Amino acid sequence: MAPVPQHRSTSGNDADTTRRPRAIALVGIDGSGKTTQAHQLADLLTAGGMPATYWQNAGGRRWLGRLARRLGRRDPQHLLGRTGLLFVESVLRWLAIARALLRSTLRRRVAVMDRYAACQYASIRAHGGHRWEVVARAFYRIFPAPDVTFLLDVAPAEAYRRIEERGTDHESMEFLAASVAAYRSLPEHPRFVVVDANGTPAEVTAAILDHLAERFPVRPSTGPVAGPVDGLPPPAGPAVPGPGVARIATRSA
Ligand SMILES: Nc1ncnc2c1ncn2[C@@H]1O[C@H](COP(=O)(O)OP(=O)(O)OP(=O)(O)O)[C@@H](O)[C@H]1O
Ligand SMILES: [Mg+2]
Fold it and tell me: Is-above-0.70 flag for pTM?
């Protein structure tokens, strides 16, 4: 059983139990654990009384990679060219984010975003298409900044290892290192909540929950808890304000 974020505000603002984020974004290089953490976070928030939905804001690179290979090309860039690929990726991600924001707003659910606009700017920088960033920003600027953007900070070698183990795609060490540099160079970077993502999935989840529990009270859950977080010990007590988050808070990365 995974711990659920219970209502416990360590900021002293216990009265404001209605405050909730509209969107939480997870950004970071390939293999940093965004998808793993975003799924987990949506499940835990929902179980804790804050209905949340996971959204994959993909730019289509994996799908385009399969298409490219089917058409006898090495990779999507070989198929579309660098500028063409950045254009298609930017359009697909823009549509995905727009859909996620719209549907989450209509359903009054927290949107847990697996990638957001910053990922597109970082992708453009990492692929050396800098002059197109201004165009992308012009289109993406209509999207509100998420309430919190978690940057999952992982060493390129660890990301490389995970991607190889996952076995669905491949990224070079050079590209992963360039991606790390691209995220760090973004003007948004000072506003990111940087999480050390080199640890176990449970440790990364704990660090994310620790930060959220400071800012957004979640009603106590009386229902079943979402799926397990590997490596986390079982919850210490009943589903009442206190032990869950207090224990997690000590495990901040
Ligand atoms: N903290 C972790 N420690 C070890 N392995 C992890 C961790 N988090 C995720 N993984 C594993 O590493 C792989 C990459 O994780 P995940 O797919 O969540 O990353 P991602 O950031 O979404 O990558 P991409 O940008 O390529 O979609 C997966 O196989 C996942 O199970
Ligand atoms: Mg992913």
Answer: yes
